[in-house]
Amino acid sequence: MKLGIVGLPNVGKSTLFNAITNAGAQSANYPFCTIEPNIGVVAVPDKRLDKLAEMYQPEKVTPATIEFVDIAGLVKGASKGEGLGNKFLSNIRECDAIVHVVRCFENDDIIHVEGSVDPARDIETINFELILSDVEILERKIDKTKKMIKGDKKYQRDLDFYNRVLNILNEGKSARSVECSEEEEKLLSEVALLSNKPIIYAANMSDEDFSSGIDKNEHFKKVKKIAKEEKAAVLPICAQLEAEIVEMDKEEKELFLADMGLEQSGLDRLIKECYSLLGLISYLTAGKPEVRAWTIKKGTKAPQAAGKIHTDFERGFIRAEVISFEDLIANGSMSSAKEKGLVRSEGKEYVMKDGDIVLFRFNV
């Protein structure tokens, strides 16, 4: 999973990226200090892996991972080549979802590219550039579909749908706001529109606002309202605090979060939101050589889940031996769970569940 971190210059985007990936991306008080996208791979926090590692004492523990891409700050006119323009937009196109960092803090020492803090304006600026880029792409798709109609009238329905989406984009609304049937959703996904990507608004606050009560922050209220209207996710966060947390050892971090009244760091909360937004779950494999988490889409069947490990597993799938994480831990060992009949043999139609511990049987 690849997440693109976007935002106007000087909103705290690179500070947040540094904190969550500890990758040391350049962060400075001037626009475009991020030119080439910085990439950081982050382990997905999963306490279940720790429990399984205690049980199996494996040679290796491998968590699921997420790739964060810190993309250059966007400015007005990017879709027409302003700033880093189309380079920026092409970087977003490669991502599965967008984390849009929105400035919700006042600080005279950090210059805002527009001269004032206004999250609604900032969100509109970036969304407008994404929509303009999408209009261009969709118009090309419409021209191509018109040519296909000459050979086969069945494409008329596709053309009608694309024109409906284009009208919505021309109204300044994102492709995410289009009401679609299942078939139309598939059509829309094939065009790869930027404004159709799932988005999380990361409302970046000052440490004072974040600790004294997020709902007192008027800027955050605006972001929350916009996210609700767009059916997008919103996450209050303090990039500066995250930068401090990343320098702490495990014990210090837990005490610090407890003092703040938080159960999880911003990174953990961000990953949780991303999984929910993209409809992702994890299944687990466990044994002496390795304990590992594998990320799949909700609704994935056993053979396709097996294919995440190796294509041969899917091609030669026989069955999956499955137990829930909770049942295994409650019984203390796999042999004990088997004696109680808690390990199930599942076939090709089995839909995987979050926390399933699986052994795939296959033959090629």
Describe the structure.
The structure is a single chain. This protein is an alpha/beta fold and 364 residues long. The protein is built from 15 helices and 12 strands. It has helices at residues 13-21, 47-56, 85-93, 119-151, 156-170, 182-191, 207-212, 218-230, 239-245, 250-259, 266-278, 302-309, 311-315, 325-331, 334-339; strands at 2-6, 38-43, 60-62, 65-70, 97-103, 199-204, 233-237, 280-286, 290-297, 317-324, 344-346, 356-362. The strands form 3 sheets. The protein has a 6-stranded mixed beta sheet with strand order 2-4-1-5-6-7, with helices on both faces. A 3-stranded mixed beta sheet has the order 3-9-8, with helices on both faces. A 3-stranded antiparallel beta sheet has the order 11-10-12. A hairpin with a 3-residue loop joins strand 8 (280-286) and strand 9 (290-297). The longest helix has 33 residues, at 119-151.
Please describe the topology of this protein.
Blueprint: E1 2-6, H1 13-21, E2 38-43, H2 47-56, E3 60-62, E4 65-70, H3 85-93, E5 97-103, H4 119-151, H5 156-170, H6 182-191, E6 199-204, H7 207-212, H8 218-230, E7 233-237, H9 239-245, H10 250-259, H11 266-278, E8 280-286, E9 290-297, H12 302-309, H13 311-315, E10 317-324, H14 325-331, H15 334-339, E11 344-346, E12 356-362
Parallel strand pairs: 1-4, 1-5, 3-9, 5-6, 6-7
Antiparallel strand pairs: 2-4, 8-9, 10-11, 10-12
Helix pairs in contact: 1-9, 4-5
